[in-house]
Amino acid sequence: MSCCDLAAGQMLGKAGIMASDCEPALNQAEGRNPTLERYLGALREAKNDSEQFAALLLVTKAVKAGDIDAKTRRRIFDAVGFTFPNRLLTTKEAPDGCPDHVLRALGVALLACFCSDPELAVHPQVLNKIPILSTFLTARGDPDDAARRSMIDDTYQCLTAVAGTPRGPRHLIAGGTVSALCQAYLGHGYGFDQALALLVGLLAAAETQCWKEAEPDLLAVLRGLSEDFQKAEDASKFELCQLLPLFLPPTTVPSECYRDLQAGLARILGSKLSSWQRNPALKLAARLAHACGSDWIPAGSSGSKFLALLVNLACVEVRLALEETGTEVKEDVVTACYALMELGIQECTRCEQSLLKEPQKVQLVSVMKEAIGAVIHYLLQVGSEKQKEPFVFASVRILGAWLAEETSSLRKEVCQLLPFLVRYAKTLYEEAEEANDLTQQVANLAISPTTPGPTWPGDALRLLLPGWCHLTVEDGPREILIKEGAPSLLCKYFLQQWELTSPGHDTSVLPDSVEIGLQTCCHIFLNLVVTAPGLIKRDACFTSLMNTLMTSLPALVQQQGRLLLAANVATLGLLMARLLSTSPALQGTPASRGFFAAAILFLSQSHVARATPGSDQAVLALSPEYEGIWADLQELWFLGMQAFTGCVPLLPWLAPAALRSRWPQELLQLLGSVSPTSVKPEMVAAYQGVLVELARANRLCREAMRLQAGEETASHYRMAALEQCLSEP
């Protein structure tokens, strides 16, 4: 019997090795088949390749892999082993007249049979064949060749079996399977649909690793799917809606895909559809919004209409889902709608280059207000048993995004919900703290309970901070927050978050949201200092906060790129020091002296004398480090100057400390070196306030100012109060 005869015979009985496309050959319940046992014996006793080929052909004719049980399959494996399939897969010297791919097809067929056993699917002899199997997916050859097609089917069967094991996806990714699958799909050859199905499974199981290993190939698939989506006129466009979210990269979607994706979505969402057709489109749009913001939506009339349509549809879905108590909520769809609402909030509050026109913004704010009302209604029904569910977190997130921009509407409803929000934030914070596993809690709360994708922060407090910052200015909401214990919770949260930025922690890996959260906490505390000073004096948590501010500021003011946070800490600490001036911690202790020295450094380095071309006299100008962020910094700076001024008469040791720092002398020297016309009136008032209080508090300060031409400088700047103070003994 020739090799080709054997190969032909093998292909006739080929399905007997595969787990698919087979017919029953024996009744397994009757016991062992004598013929099969005889053939297996011949296979075990084969002395050369020809005898093994012949015996294997007989075995494949006698049994169909889809109909044999695990024990029989294992006996076939025991008889064949891996050595023979290994040789078939790697042989380069086929007998005359026998194509080499026929031998490889037989080897793959054997592996496909073995891989139907989960234990054999993860055998090292199978796993080390992954790179070889992956090459078969993209090998060139006659597309109509039956043996080649069978080999491709068996290859997918092997790879799919490996992917179905717990650690299988990792082995496939490491073996180059993802790139091979991408190329097989893009080539649209035989089995390309199987390539796409396996890619979907691998992305669902190990998205990050897939993108890390094969980003260029996956982006090529995304571009192909996007083009197909834009062109699709039949039901395939709805199938693509479900596939495309899986192929969006975890970082940035290529801009060349924007047009096709937006056009395809516009065609779907602009039509009258059933929910099963519309919902995948909303989820795809949400993934794009989460990954790209509004960058994927074109500017102009078509883009603004499309965005308005998205947000309106999302708001309708949210209201339908949440306003009816007792109805089953499709949480994945509503969560997607939240993402689209958040995009709407961002665009409605954007002043420059917004996609929306003013009438569109007014209309969208109105419909979003109704949808937020439905969210509040839902959250009021949430019991303690549901507080850990991702959908509740997503609902709190969209409410936080709304409150960050709008607190005047729905005020009654928001006040009614505030006790729940404080309890909810406290529950998540305390449980994360006890478990010492905040990172894992964050990772477990994703954009959607069912859709793979980038995770959202699991830090509920951080989401609520901007809204609470607005609400603490208003009497009613502030009283509720105080009554529910929000200030104490915020102090604990601030101290915990501050630890993440302290020495010993790698601040380079921290998200920007940590520092932004700390700044927003400072703003809330500033509001409480101004509106509820009695709370600061009586609540012990603020004493702990003050201690942290004092010990942290000296190092913070020295760090590059953290000036805005330093400004918040310095200003808050100075304002709190006025209220807590009788505290032992502020009576000239090393910590208090270090804090005020750092505060003086922050306040004194904001401005410098700068020469101007064509003029003999310099002008007062912002320091380079302050200049770029002065718009965000100036209010804190002026408030800090006022607070420092107020601290001087309350802390007797502060004026001598300021004198030793040479701040008053250097300030007068600075004013004397610049043109008075270059110093704005508000700057003159701020400088005079500090100088007057220092002069009044300490005789040595007055003498030092006189020696620095203080009276003359006061006269030039019309600082009447300072001039009078320095004229006194």
UniProtKB/TrEMBL annotation:
Chain ranges passing through the membrane: none
Protein name per UniProt: Neurochondrin
Coiled coil: none
Pfam families, per the entry: Neurochondrin
Upper taxonomic lineage: Eukaryota, Metazoa, Chordata, Craniata, Vertebrata
InterPro entries: ARM-type_fold, Neurochondrin
Similarity annotation: Belongs to the neurochondrin family.
Natural source organism: Saguinus oedipus (Cotton-top tamarin)
Entry superkingdom: Eukaryota
